[in-house]
Amino acid sequence: MIIVMKNQATEKQIEDVIHWIESVGYKAHPSIGVERTIIGAVGDNRDKGILKYAESLPGVEKTMPILKPYKLASRESHEGNTVVSVGPIKIGGPEFVVIAGPCAIESEEQLLESAYVAIKGGAQILRGGAYKPRTSPYSFQGMEEEGLKVLNKVSVKTSLPTVTEVVNPADVDLVESYADMLQIGARNTQNFALLKEVGHSKKPVLLKRGMMTTIEELLMSAEYILSSGNPNVILCERGIRTFETATRNTLDLSAVPVLKGLTHLPVIVDPSHAAGHWQYVIPLSRAAAAVGADGLIVEVHPQPEKAVSDGMQSLKPEKFYQLMDELRAITTAMRH
Questions:
Q1: Are residues 105 and 23 part of one domain?
Q2: 153 vs 37, 164, 180, 336, CA distance in Å?
Q3: pTM
Q4: Assigned domain for 70 exists
């Protein structure tokens, strides 16, 4: 249920409504807009009729049911678009944000060189995986905590905020102590224990769409994080599994405008994992910007031919610089 406060509602009236919502067994999720405050009341639907009583409380204009199963992620529950801060970088605002770096952290030298490439090209956030969930148990699984230490060290040297994947609920506290944003990978989109755990984190969460996940299922996964108390969620389209074998996955660019219509959360695109080959990354990135994504996460490696993970889909520095030049031209043209 959404409780819409009157324009002139006082802070005390808003606080009283929040207290009342919690007193009847629901969680209150206020969204303070420019013109008015909206309070989402989320909980067990069996006794939701009691929430209609809120209309008699001082400062309340009306109550409205949220028809979507994803209550907090829906546009009804939030006025305007959510802007998520990753360090000093804001995703979901007017600026198109690029996250760049290698799939896996291999060494301090490799990550530092990748960071300098990212900075030179104009990327705002550094990516690098310390934990790598792989299809084969014999593939490189990541440097784990040593990789996190390298990530933090490079972040301090370059002043780039960072994002890295967390794969185990038990590791959330450790990962968030080193990284600026936590990534939930495609294989963990419906790992509900992990989603609840990052929902308790104070760090923003980059939630990737699973390869077999519908848009509604992605939003329900986001709902787990939001309902656990973390409002800072960024959605990522990274390709879905279809019958097509020419690319690693099929990038669902239609997901961007569809999500933009359904949710207030920022939406970015990962063309690297969708394509599986570097030669498709630039055209897919151009398309992502043109279709209205808030940003990109791309794989960049100083020597992709020597990468221990996903070298085939990683851009070399010169190709990354070309991509960034083209993105600037597209985003500038779109603003005009």
A1: no
A2: 41, 14, 13, 40
A3: 0.91
A4: no
